[in-house]
Design goal:
The chain is mainly beta. It is built from three helices and eleven strands. Among the domains are: about 90 residues, no CATH class; about 35 residues, no CATH class; about 70 residues, Beta Barrel (Thrombin, subunit H). The strands form four sheets. Strands 1-2-3 form a three-stranded antiparallel beta sheet, with no helix packed on it. A three-stranded antiparallel beta sheet has the order 6-11-8, with no helix packed on it. The two termini are about 60 Å apart.
Length: about 375
């Protein structure tokens, strides 16, 4: 009985293996089982050249589906290596030339072992070189990090004014933060000498510019509107000894345009004609004030007549003195309101105050580091 059972078992196994052999033979890959599920590393060598010649080709003629799928429990699902040139190259007539997806980690990871020179870990080329989109509002679309250099470096080769970085958002186009003492959160540089503009900011209504501010190559700030400051206005002047001193700006109840000068009184009368540039900036029809100071002994001076282009000065009591006198003119600026101390409603923009995004897990996997 034992021999019969043993023979039956052996016979059954033989039939089982025989059936498998027939099935594999009918599929035409009876000798290819080890290629589908290799037990050890296999390699194939060829000497093709150029990006359009391939040592190995997988083709899927269906209108849908993938030509090649690579899976791995821990290492790389698909690993490409090249002594020079491209380790992995993907192209497509429509869709994506190369795509990476991960349900829990990094979709596409780029690493370079070259620690010197302009060698990027990830390089994008095309109408849009690199495009990053975030599906979680708490994380950025593109994150750049460096231990001792630029976290993000962008350069444009356009000579028509296209920027190296263009940021757009419905609330804020860009949020820049610096958590280190004594360094700037935003640094702007232009290498065009005094002809360039290191910083330009403007606002539009969709078709035209409604307000702008820019800093020119000489460091002068230019505004298309007025400047409002809570703490007053100060300007820095350099003394004869080289010290940099802060001078306060005089404040008035309403906008004024002023000019000063020295004129001559001859036989008790003198006339002052406004400088043409000064006259073009004031509205003399709204009136102006003149303050006189004689530069010598006199009975006193007064303004005998005011005109749009100047005024006449005479000595009191029909005096006939001849001497110099100083004058100060205070007028209303052309095109500016006469409002006195108008109430100001300072509206600060709504700021997002974003938190610093979490640093992505960008450590190089141990299996990718060459030893």
């Amino acid at each position: 009985m034992k021999l019969i059972a043993k023979a039956a078992v052996v016979s059954g196994l033989g039939a089982l293996f025989l059936g498998s052999s027939i099935a594999l033979s009918s599929a035409g890959i009876a000798s290819g089982a080890r290629i589908v599920h290799p037990d050890k590393k296999t390699s194939y060598t060829c000497s093709k050249t150029g990006l359009t010649s391939y040592c190995f080709t997988v083709s899927n003629t269906s209108s849908n589906g993938s030509a090649l799928l690579g899976e791995s429990n821990e290492g790389a699902g698909l690993f490409g290596e090249a002594t020079s040139g491209l380790g992995t190259y993907g192209t497509a007539t429509t869709g994506y030339g190369a795509a990476g997806f991960s349900s829990e980690s990094t979709g596409v990871f780029g690493a370079s072992s070259a620690y010197s020179g302009q060698v990027p870990a990830v390089y994008g080329y095309g109408p849009i070189g690199v495009y990053g989109q975030s599906i979680n509002g708490n994380y950025p679309g593109v994150y750049g990090y460096s231990t001792n250099s630029n976290g993000l470096y962008a350069e444009s080769g356009s000579t028509s004014g296209s920027p190296g970085v263009y940021a757009y958002g419905p609330a804020e186009g860009a949020f820049i933060e610096n958590g280190l003492c004594c360094y700037a959160a935003l640094e702007a540089e232009n290498d065009d000498g005094t002809s360039g503009y290191p910083f330009v900011a403007y606002n539009t209504d969709g078709s035209s510019t409604t307000g702008e501010f820019y800093v020119d190559g000489s460091g002068d700030g230019n505004f298309s509107g007025s400047v409002t400051a809570k703490g007053g206005y100060k300007t820095v002047i350099v003394s004869h000894g080289g010290e940099r001193l802060a001078a306060s700006v005089a404040m008035t109840a309403q906008a004024t345009m002023e000019d000063t000068g020295t004129a001559r009184l001859v036989d008790g009368e003198g006339a002052v004609r406004f400088d043409s540039a000064f006259a073009s900036t004031i509205d003399a029809h709204r009136g102006y004030q003149v303050f006189l100071t004689p530069d010598g002994d006199t009975r006193g001076l007064y303004v005998a007549a005011k005109y749009v282009r100047g005024f006449v000065v005479r000595e009191l009591e029909r005096g006939r003195s001849s001497l110099d006198f100083d004058y100060r003119i205070v007028a209303r600026p052309h095109g500016v309101s006469d409002d006195r101390l108008p109430q100001v409603d300072i509206k600060m923009p709504t700021l997002a105050h974003l938190k610093h995004p979490a640093r992505p897990q960008n450590k190089i996997p141990a299996w990718l580091v060459r030893r």
